Amino acid sequence: MITVEDIDARGTQHCETTALGVLLRHEGLDLSEPMLFGLGSGLSFIYWDSKNMGFPFLGGRVKPFDLTRNLAAILGLELLVQETTSPRRAWENVTVPIDAGHPVGLQLDSYYLDYFGSKVHFGGHVVAMCGYDEYDAYLVDTDRQGGAVTTSLTSLAQARAARGPMAAKHRSFTLTTPRNPPSPQGQIVPAITACADAFLNPPIANLGHRGIEKTGKLVRTWLQRTDTPQRDLPQAALLMEEAGTGGALFRNLYRDFLAECTELLDSSHLRTGHTLYTEAATLWTEVAALIKKAGESGEAQCLVQAGTVLCDLSRMEREAMQALSCLEA
């Protein structure tokens, strides 16, 4: 068995921030999960639907791996990313750093992992790999998935080779902190304003505050969107609350990030953003409950209510991001 020493296998709520936390703590940089999420400008929104999809998908964060790239850029980290179509080369890309004593991040399809509770294809899942033996890989995943876990090398190879939406070609990555890294506290304002700018100025109507407003109109039709609403609507609600989002479609994480920032920076704009996102997080959980109830009961009125709340959320989050965009370094 070959394992990296001194690994803090702390499973947290979201997969990408869990893996980032493992890699950075090994480099001597210990940041809370909300701080990792916020410094990575992780918050977003997307309403995703197409003819080949069984049901619409609501996303509350930036695209998989964008958070990692953002975080590395703003903290001046050396991010080494490797991708390949060769399974043999992909395995070498993982074993070389692990043999040298460094954990590795992997992007893969969670469907194939032995320990994973929910068998749904998701090619944007991220884990930290800290060791291996003849049969198994030793990983760190979210707390919900067990924290420090193992999966067979066969299942890992399948997960890394998978293709489909959000999948990458055997992507692996390592992070190295520079000798004189910038202070995380000093990067809070640029991270927040970058996130706010993207949210306030989405290129298409399915993203950012415009996407939330669009969802408020379309969610009212969801009982007619599927032949199995009693399955699909509760599943959509579950994904919003429990599928590694930290609850409230990542709004809980961003609320906690802003709360942590208010202890470090004195700004009325920051306090306004935190107050509004505290309220928004509660309302997102309410929306998920209404969607679930609509699926279980067939009551269209629940979706009408959810649509009304979503329109309020579009306005509320727009106001929050407008306040946060006024922050000055």
Automatic annotation (TrEMBL):
Domain Butirosin biosynthesis protein H N-terminal: 14-142
Database matches in InterPro entries: BtrH_N, DUF4872
Annotated Pfam families: BtrH_N (PF14399), DUF4872 (PF16169)
Domain (DUF4872) ranges: 155-324
Protein name, per record: Lantibiotic ABC transporter
Gene source species: Spinactinospora alkalitolerans
Biological classification of the source: Bacteria, Bacillati, Actinomycetota, Actinomycetes, Streptosporangiales
